[in-house]
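Consider this today:
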Amino acid sequence: MRSLPNLDTLSLTELVAQMLAIRASGYLFDHQILYPSWEPTTDKLKRLVELGVGGVILLGGSAAEIALKTQQLQSWATIPLLIAADIEEGVGQRFAGATWFPPPMAIGAIASHNLSLAQTYAARMGAITAQEALAVGINWVLAPVVDVNNNPDNPVINVRSFGDNPAIVSQLASAYIQGAKSYPVLTAAKHFPGHGDTAADSHLDVPVIPHSPARLAEIELPPFQAAIAAGVDAVMSAHLLIPSWDTEHPATLSSHILTQQLRQNMSFEGLIVTDALVMGAIANRYGANEAPVLAVEAGADILLMPVDPEGAIQAVCTAVEAGRISKERIRASVERIWKAKLQVVGENREQGAGSREQGRKTRERGETRETRETRETIFELAKPEAFAVVNEILSASQVVRGNVPLMSAQSASESKKLRNLIVVDELLGCDFLHRKAPAIALPTLHGYTTQLCDRHTPVVFETDDDCPTLLQLFIRGNPFRGSAGIAQVGQVWVKKLLASGNLQALVVYGSPYVLQQLPPMLPSIPCVFSYGQMPTAQAVSLSALFAKSI
């Protein structure tokens, strides 16, 4: 890995470029790009990296693809890159094949009755995530979420938070950071100054936090203070309007919030990174090139996912040349970026030193050191001990109600079929369901016929609907969806099945707030709740429902 150049040798354009982290597809080929307005083609991505952007955030693809992608990106870069990913639930949340943890709120649920155990799980989750991130070339983990989710209607944070108690969120976030610091990766606490008490999605519009400074100091700020004390490397801003602090600008664009509150009052010396500037709360209101300038003026060090990277670089340079932003302000940000990069670049240099003899042998085989290391480290993913931690968290946080285990085949009349009805928010792009997923495969072993539907599926009552039904609801808050509650189609099915007496059992995966929205007569129905939605969560939940018969 190349060393970092002296800042005095860099031009203004090169310095500003280092303040950008652009988005790219984790897939290897251009025809696989899913979001062409956000993810550049290979040629354009290479041009931006060669232009000198400081970082890349990746989404999509398998862990093996990411290992190759990150190697390719670093090979293009003159200055080593920060390569980031939103892997709040482990590398497997975004990149298939790696370990996928349940959301942080599962650990928060454990903390309500065993804080020490929950802290252990948070630390192990942080360590495993960091280790697997490094194995695929990611050196910046955009986690933990330290928002206090005290609004059940929050559509964007929801189960991504450790919970609604500031003290517990603080302790679990600190444990996660300390676990991650076992490895040379960067971490990021988000979303400052707190996105938990919102009912709007900042991906779509600007939520307003109406609270007083005293209330913010009591609820929203303590987890960020704890994260800073634990040594978090970066703090990500939120696209929120907080009138008691700034009546005009959202936090991402507010110098009062980023510089005065975070940098000065809270003494944070690490990186301040914006949330994605392509999000509607910013892009729709301030424009592609003005928003980056405002963010730098506010105190941001890294501009995440600007709409137009080259335009953003030019706009910030123009602002410096016009005297709107001082060159010293740019220099201060890049110095912080250099300090952060040295934490990961220095370690990579040390790990990559190797022996000259080993280097000679790999060259003789026509194999580079990077290729050899990629091949070796990719097998460090999804180890049995990592899966053991996932299973322990799922089991310890799971809620079981009613008369389980369910003896499905014996309880149903032989003249009636058994139905496995699965309701998800969006079937297209649903990465936790496939033909062999436990939610489908395990009930099939018990004679159930699967029926899938989502919020787009019309609810049509057929004459053969009169059958014992296992209802599985996959519902959690998701960005861009604008809702964290049970979908209308799910409500209709619950009411219909209860009225007909055909609701045999219920499994809810995702948001615990959904349970509060279900009809009051539901406690008499066998029910299992899991914070996770991934296949491992399905297997653990259905094992509780059917017990030893699976």
Summary: The longest strand covers residues 503-510. DSSP finds 22 helices and 14 strands in the chain. Residues 254 and 480 are 24 Å apart (CA to CA).
